[in-house]
Amino acid sequence: IEKTVFVVFFSGEQAKTKILKICEAFGANCYPVPEDISKQTQVTRE
């Protein structure tokens, strides 16, 4: 199975809403990333 990964960084609720709609249209999975840098590192390693 071939998969493609992309990362989107954004700021603001309006941008979040638009990005989530685009992801839904493409059937993409969305994963939240914590704002705390140490928690980001932990999530990335998992």
UniProtKB/TrEMBL annotation:
Cellular component, GO, one term: proton-transporting V-type ATPase, V0 domain
UniProt xrefs under Pfam families: V_ATPase_I
Superkingdom in the source lineage: Eukaryota
Its membrane topology: Multi-pass membrane protein
Any one GO biological process: vacuolar acidification
Keywords associated with the record: Hydrogen ion transport, Ion transport, Membrane, Transmembrane, Transmembrane helix, Transport
Cellular localization per UniProt: Membrane
GO MF term set: ATPase binding; proton-transporting ATPase activity, rotational mechanism
Purpose of the protein: Essential component of the vacuolar proton pump (V-ATPase), a multimeric enzyme that catalyzes the translocation of protons across the membranes. Required for assembly and activity of the V-ATPase.
Similarity comment text for this entry: Belongs to the V-ATPase 116 kDa subunit family.
Protein name in UniProt: V-type proton ATPase subunit a
Organism: Nymphaea colorata (pocket water lily)
